[in-house]
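Field reference: sequence -> structure
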Amino acid sequence: MISSELFVNQLQNLGFGLFTGVPCSFLSPLINYVIDSPSLNYVGAANEGDAVAIATGSELAGIHSVVMMQNSGLGNAFNPLTSLNAIFHLPVLLIVTWRAEPGSELDEPQHELMGQITLKSLELINIAWDYCPEQDNQIETTLYKAITHMSETGRPFALVARKNSFAPYKLKTKLSTKAILRENLSNTNSITPLPTRSQVLKVVQEKAQGQDAIIATTGFTGRALYALSDLENQFYMVGSMGCASSLGLGLAISKPDKKVIVVDGDGAALMRLGALTTIGYESPKNLVHLLLDNEMHESTGGQSTVSHSIDFALIAQASGYRKVVRAYSLEDIALALKESNELTFIYAKISSEETKNLPRPTVKPPEVAKRFSLWLNK
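Structure field:
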């Protein structure tokens, strides 16, 4: 067994500042220690894929991050690991437990198959791994191997934690309860023909003035933003559908002096609604979540979503967003962006009549990530 305190101290010395994930009993001592420590930043994610995206946002901000998960949740993380971290060359350190390790006693039947294929799964998606250290004198060497790999390849590295890898540590604190603001929903009266996505994105670019970070969700949103103007403060999520808001959360937490504008879509937001609860709880003042709703998966042929039958604004309010605005015009959006000084959710219906033949970015994902990170940290 190793000491969580010693393990975390060495991670901090290597520049790791944000910890996120979904609990597993094998990792309880480590997660409990991180939660208790006043000098550490822990974000409890709704699922493992969101945790990977949160950590990746922190990496963009120049702060290394750790994602902790049970091996049964590894499948939830496959999408961002393969279509975000792999293609943008953005590393995160994974700590994955090995429940139902072959040859060990089976504690729960649901872990049996995943226990057999945990290592194969990591190798299948080209993630290098090593066993999590089980003695204190192994920590430095193991972490050096992990960070060297991540630095040289730009890819994640996984530490596979067996049962009893960490010495017991009992949680002393609990997350504080945060009240939901019942009167934070703003309705505007201006009703005009629905704007197009490109018209809204032009307003976003104008208000950002090259000073605010813009995260564009996958599909036509990133392509439309690129078509307007390819700027260094823009990050195009070409994959990892539904992860834009979590990436924005990690970025906003790790870069509190920079406003972060996430431009989301109805299909993407529906895919990972749990992310809204995490964002609402963390409530970074510098994050704006702009959701554009055309009631369809437009880039894949116009298949309908169920957004016409739900209320995103009420969901955001119930999730703890400090300010929620229903925007009915470009002027409403511009005003909401201008006045945002706390966690803000802007909901806007848009026309489904998008500009045809939107170009795909010619700048490659690793180049997008590199220039965005350089701009962010200059």
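Note: The chain has a mean pLDDT of 94.
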